């Protein structure tokens, strides 16, 4: 994107109230007037620093004037803005677009935080509750044979749960099937 297009995009942001004060605008105009290459002539600098004209009008006229002059002039304006009002320069809408080239791109640092903000204990607790509910639903379903299928499931459980816990579960299931 050329600097003229960026300046056109940023014009509303820069001319809105309380963004740039009179001192900062004067510093920018003086820098554009005095620094090599000279962007503004002495007459133009006086015109854009005239305190009789409102700040909004002077700033709007300055930005339009720089756009007419070309890309190099707009680039020098951005350089002067960065030197004299760095925070405002960093908040420009065109700078935000340049920082994120693809608006659909996911910010991986933020996404990683969003996925990991609960920690592993929360994951294990949720997984345990889900596994317990699934086992409870499977075992308490009246249409299935509880003991036969439960033995098959719990037969593989020494890997997951201890042998004593498995025996208690099997005894409980057998007792439930008798009632």
Automatic annotation (TrEMBL):
Q: PROSITE patterns under this entry? A: CARD
Gene Ontology, cellular component aspect: endoplasmic reticulum membrane; mitochondrial membrane
Question: Keywords, A to Z?
Answer: Disulfide bond, Endoplasmic reticulum, Membrane, Mitochondrion, Transmembrane, Transmembrane helix
Q: Where would one find coiled-coil regions in this protein?
A: none
Q: Which GO terms describe its biological process?
A: regulation of apoptotic process
Q: Start and end of every CARD domain?
A: 38-96
Subcellular location per the Swiss-Prot or TrEMBL entry: Endoplasmic reticulum membrane; Mitochondrion membrane
Q: InterPro entries given for it?
A: CARD, CARD19, CARD_BinCARD, DEATH-like_dom_sf
Bilayer topology annotation: Single-pass membrane protein
CDD domains xref list: CARD_BinCARD_like (cd13785)
TM segment ranges: 120-138
Quaternary structure?
A: Associates with BCL10 by CARD-CARD interaction.
On the tree of life, the source organism's domain of life is: Eukaryota
The protein, known as: Caspase recruitment domain-containing protein 19
Q: Which gene encodes it?
A: Card19
